[in-house]
Write a sequence for this structure.
């Protein structure tokens, strides 16, 4: 052969080789068993009765929702509801459902099923408070549902909130509502097989999935509460995905060629709540002083290796209707001055309650906050409480609530200010909610309700701009940061994405064999 | 003999009663409403009523205890707050795992401990002896959780030879097994050494030696056999101790056994589970002690002369 | 023949029992190391504010997780606190934990086992059954039981470990008294009409001292281990208190990136426990030389 022809052959050969090696044109492969390491076990495989965002991500492999957010753009997507119309006053929602979808037990998914599910949610769902605007649901024909609500513009966004998942009515009737969690049945890409508490949950591929059979044969979700163990398991290859890793593991896992860090946009606002009706916290100056006393940048740099985002607004700036404000920069002198002005020159005694392990680096941050507050003269008692007991305390009304300062987080899952302000709502004091901020501001409440009734998004923004500034200035809580959303996976796992609400998107996941 | 056995068996009953009473009291003395404590967060009025009826929560303490005993004898340990499942089911699985771990640790402790003790005892004041005994005293001083973490760091994290957490394969039993066995291994080594030394001084050994029996046979036929007797009778107690020691080891290695269940239950305020696990531990321990006492009595007549 | 008859001859070497014990003890190098270590820790505990380079609870976020360096000899923990200073202050906590819990165990153990052994009869049977019941619980489990009721915390942990030691001491004391009760000098005293309490105080108790001393030293070792275990489980002292077990527990999370946080507190626990064990063994060998032929003669 002539030299030219050899060249072409060699170059083609190289290109082909390079393509194979670099994965150019890598096609998803079918088969394989993906193993996921979670921070906590799934408490109940009953989507209406479960909390904990990580777990909801896994549950959504089995149970699907009417709408969804795209994992990357956050854009609202139709899902089981393929299209919808809304009345101009935002009270009547007509949803058109996907046709021919079946639950894993061959029960057809239709309007009756939607009605059954929403009614179950409203009756016994843990998060039913978030859906209290729903007034009635009608199954107009087999694939059309009409939902009547109080005026609520972002309703379709709310339907992306996992507790409104669609489960098989047949299964609920068969097992009984209380026992449904023992064997959930949904419409999702994977079918539930078993849940061995504390050990694993096992799912297998839904061959008849309405969007096409998923790539993986099996998905296993194992709880590995120890973050060190979780990271170690990922490195050893015992698991393919490790959820919720503290940023201290980032450098190590990034350096490792077999693992990769998954970063999603942080969306969970972590703060130290103040009981606005307790002693010194009734005074706005004291509350602002508390904000000035904390060095949030140092906390971010040291504890989160810079992966957190300092809070600049009462909720994540990703949310619709959130407006960034000027943060309370670290200024212990100013804090002390404000305290003195408010009548507490020698500080006061206060208890900081936190629930270890619940959020990322909870204990470290709580200790750090306590230390900063002690620097400005406060006498801080740190009190660790277990999550269930914490929840009970948080739900107590203003007269009996023992909490003074407490570390908590709030994920604005619908990415809409209406949901984001829920914490601060003066009309939602415990026991109507679990947020004992006890913020009191009639003007804010009026503006908030006005915003709700408005359907034009531009108009809503006007209200929210004012509310944001008002709430920020009042400093009802000590704003800290938005928690990093770092997870990790092995290189051979593809199509694994994490969303800003910390749930994992696995519908397109596949494993290199 | 049979009289002794019967008497010993009968003695177990008051002890078990006492154990159940103490566990019962512990749960009742936890500050708070007993119904809340036993049901957790989400409870309906019906659940509370049912619980009150079952365990007699508003009756005087002794009557409550009676009802509690009644439920126990019927095999009803209650429902776990977290999972809503009857506790007996969870306990059974966890018990099996802990037993596996304890047996592995017992085997390690016995084999290595006895071997080390024999080596040290037959070469008193030698370098081997000093090293072994130094290791032994370190072994009883080392905190179990620290040893576990150090082993985990070396072998699982740095060298990747063994898994760090979990259960399932033989490999998962290695690190927790070694960790759990350390203290007992060291104790056995020390005891064996003393025992061997004592036996070696005995007359019948000197006699055997003077008769020209080789040192090896002296060791094997006479010394070790007799030195073993006190060691063997200790095996039973050892298993009981290992069951208790597993609480910490399981926590370090996230090994799903009884100990981990207890700690998780405690942290999660899952008191029905805590109650059930403690009862099972105590009952097992008592029964093991019983078996040891009985077997010791069986061995005893034969020990006298050999 | 009186059990502890001894003669004091003028000019001859004193043969008072405690002198003899001390002489034998001195020859045991390992035991001396143990004693030395304990003394060092006691000094550290007492003079902690003078010895420790930093305030143990002062946070310095910029130094978080720093490995051992000239600034922090043994490194800094997750909030930048100096680990060495925390270990030094931790000596106070651990030694107190050991002493107080053993104190509780000893006192209540004596109260339970003493009269039971001495008077026997019905009292003995009931007490023994009660002790049997308590001994059906592995030690750590008893401690956990107590913490379940009273809640976590440093003082609660002391109580819990103390209670867990009671059955051991009760049995020990009862056994000792049973043995001593048989001795002739007790019969003689009784024949002379000496009251029970006098017998107990003047004759029995002093002879208990040696074995009790040995056992107590060894029990302090296991008490410190148990207390550290409670701390490790999060059932003991709460943050920011520098208790060694709790420090280890925190260090666990950072095992991969900052193993020094976990390593050194654990080492401290081990050395302390080792010291008490060595001293206890040494005391035992010194007091009961019959056994010492069968121990490694060091020195």
């Amino acid at each position: 052969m002539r030299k030219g022809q050899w060249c072409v052959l060699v170059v083609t050969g190289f290109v082909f080789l390079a393509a194979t090696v670099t994965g150019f044109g890598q096609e998803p492969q079918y088969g394989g068993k993906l193993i996921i390491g979670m921070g906590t076990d799934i408490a109940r495989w009953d989507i209406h009765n479960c909390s904990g965002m990580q777990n909801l991500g896994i549950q959504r492999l089995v149970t699907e929702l009417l709408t969804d957010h795209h994992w990357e753009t956050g854009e609202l997507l139709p899902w089981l509801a393929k299209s919808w119309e809304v009345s101009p006053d935002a009270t009547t929602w007509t949803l058109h459902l996907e046709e021919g979808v079946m639950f894993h037990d061959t029960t057809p998914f239709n309007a009756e099923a939607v009605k059954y599910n929403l009614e179950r949610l409203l009756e016994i769902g843990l998060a039913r408070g978030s859906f209290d605007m729903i007034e009635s649901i009608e199954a107009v024909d087999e694939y059309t549902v009409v939902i009547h609500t109080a005026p609520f513009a972002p309703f379709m966004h709310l339907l992306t909130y996992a507790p409104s998942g669609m489960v098989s009515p047949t299964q609920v009737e068969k097992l009984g509502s209380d026992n449904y969690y023992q064997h959930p049945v949904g419409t999702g890409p994977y079918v539930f097989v078993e849940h061995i508490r504390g050990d694993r949950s096992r799912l297998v591929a839904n061959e008849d999935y309405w969007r096409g059979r998923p790539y993986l044969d099996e998905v296993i979700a194992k709880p590995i509460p120890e973050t060190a163990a979780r990271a170690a398991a990922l490195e050893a290859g015992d698991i393919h995905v490790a959820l919720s890793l503290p940023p201290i593991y980032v450098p190590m896992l990034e350096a490792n060629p077999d693992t990769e860090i998954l970063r999603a946009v942080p969306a969970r606002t972590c703060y130290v709540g103040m009981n606005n009706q307790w002693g010194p916290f009734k005074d706005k100056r004291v509350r602002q002083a508390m904000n000035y006393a904390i060095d949030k940048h140092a906390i971010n740099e040291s504890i989160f290796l810079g992966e957190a985002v300092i809070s600049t607004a009462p909720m994540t700036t990703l949310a619709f209707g959130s407006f960034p404000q000027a943060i309370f920069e670290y200024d212990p002198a100013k804090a002390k001055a404000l305290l003195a002005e408010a009548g507490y020159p020698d500080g006061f005694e206060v208890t900081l309650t936190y629930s270890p392990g619940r959020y990322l680096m909870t204990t470290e941050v709580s200790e750090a906050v306590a230390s900063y507050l002690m620097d400005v003269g406060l006498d801080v008692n740190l009190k660790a409480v277990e999550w269930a007991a914490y929840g009970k305390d948080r739900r107590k009304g203003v007269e009996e609530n023992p909490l003074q300062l407490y570390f908590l987080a709030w994920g604005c899952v619908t990415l809409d200010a209406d949901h984001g302000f829920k914490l601060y709502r003066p009309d939602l004091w415990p026991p109507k909610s679990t947020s004992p901020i006890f913020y009191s501001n009639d003007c804010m409440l009026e503006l908030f309700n006005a915003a709700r009734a408005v359907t034009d998004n531009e108009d809503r923004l006007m209200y929210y701009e004012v509310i944001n500034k008002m709430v920020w200035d009042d400093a009802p809580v000590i704003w800290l940061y938005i928690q990093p959303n770092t997870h990790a996976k092995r290189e051979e796992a593809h199509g694994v994405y994490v969303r800003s609400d910390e749930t994992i998107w696995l519908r397109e996941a596949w494993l290199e064999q | 003999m049979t009289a002794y056995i019967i008497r010993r068996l009968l003695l177990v009953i008051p002890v078990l009663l006492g154990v159940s009473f103490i566990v019962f009291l512990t749960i009742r003395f936890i500050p708070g409403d007993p119904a809340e404590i036993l049901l957790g967060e989400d409870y309906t009025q019906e659940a509370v009523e049912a619980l009150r009826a079952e365990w007699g929560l508003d009756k005087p303490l002794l009557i409550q205890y009676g009802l509690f005993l009644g439920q126990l004898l019927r095999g009803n340990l209650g429902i776990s707050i977290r999972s809503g499942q009857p506790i007996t089911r969870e306990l059974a699985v966890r018990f099996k795992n802990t037993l596996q771990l304890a047996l592995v640790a017992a085997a390690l402790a016995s084999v290595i401990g006895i071997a080390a003790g024999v080596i040290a005892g037959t070469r008193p004041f030698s370098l081997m002896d000093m090293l072994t005994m130094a290791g032994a005293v370190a072994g009883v001083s080392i905190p179990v959780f620290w040893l576990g973490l150090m082993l985990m760091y070396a072998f699982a994290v740095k060298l990747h030879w063994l898994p760090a957490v979990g259960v399932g394969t033989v490999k998962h039993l290695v690190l927790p097994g070694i960790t759990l066995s350390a203290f007992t291994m060291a104790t056995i080594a020390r005891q064996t050494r003393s025992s061997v030394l004592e036996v070696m001084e005995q007359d019948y050994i000197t006699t055997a030696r003077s008769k020209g029996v080789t040192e090896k046979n002296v060791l094997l036929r006479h010394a070790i056999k007799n030195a073993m007797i006190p060691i063997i009778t200790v095996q039973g107690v050892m298993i009981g101790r290992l069951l208790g020691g597993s609480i910490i080891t399981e926590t370090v290695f996230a090994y799903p056994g009884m100990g981990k269940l207890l700690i998780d239950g405690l942290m999660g305020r899952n008191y029905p589970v805590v109650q059930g696990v403690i009862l099972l531990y105590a009952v097992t321990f008592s029964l093991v002690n019983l078996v040891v006492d009985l077997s010791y009595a069986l061995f005893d007549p034969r020990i006298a002369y050999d | 023949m009186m059990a502890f008859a001894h003669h004091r001859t003028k000019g001859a070497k004193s043969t008072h029992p405690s002198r003899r014990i001390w002489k034998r003890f001195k020859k045991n190098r390992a035991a001396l190391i143990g004693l030395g270590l304990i003394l060092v820790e006691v000094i550290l505990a007492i003079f902690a504010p003078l010895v420790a380079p930093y305030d143990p609870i002062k946070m310095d976020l910029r130094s978080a997780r720093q490995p051992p360096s000239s600034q922090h000899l043994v490194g800094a923990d997750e909030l930048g606190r100096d680990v060495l200073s925390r270990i030094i202050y931790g000596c106070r906590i651990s030694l107190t934990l050991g002493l107080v819990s053993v104190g509780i165990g000893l006192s209540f153990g004596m109260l339970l086992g003493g009269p039971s052994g001495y008077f026997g009869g019905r009292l003995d049977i009931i007490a023994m059954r009660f002790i049997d019941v308590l001994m059906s619980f592995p030690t750590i489990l008893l401690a956990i039981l107590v913490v379940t009721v009273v809640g976590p915390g440093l003082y609660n942990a002391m109580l819990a470990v103390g209670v867990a030691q009671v059955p051991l001491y009760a049995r020990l004391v009862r056994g000792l008294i049973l043995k001593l009760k048989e001795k002739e000098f007790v019969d003689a005293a009784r024949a002379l009409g000496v009251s029970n309490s006098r017998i107990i105080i003047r004759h029995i108790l002093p002879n208990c001292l040696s074995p009790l001393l040995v056992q107590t030293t060894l029990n302090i070792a296991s008490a410190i281990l148990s207390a550290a275990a409670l701390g490790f489980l999060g059932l003991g002292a709460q943050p920011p208190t520098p208790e060694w077990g709790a420090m280890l527990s925190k260090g666990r999370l950072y095992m991969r990136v900052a193993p020094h946080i976990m390593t050194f507190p654990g080492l401290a626990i081990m050395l302390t426990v080792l010291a008490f064990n060595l001293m206890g063994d040494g005391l035992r060998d010194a007091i009961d030389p019959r056994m010492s032929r069968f121990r490694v003669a060091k020195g």
The radius of gyration of chain A is 25 Å. The interface with chain B takes residues 43, 178, 181, 197-199, 222, 224-226, 228-229, 232-233, 235-236, 238, 386, 388-389, 391-392 of chain A (CB under 8 Å). Chain A is about 30% helix and 25% strand.
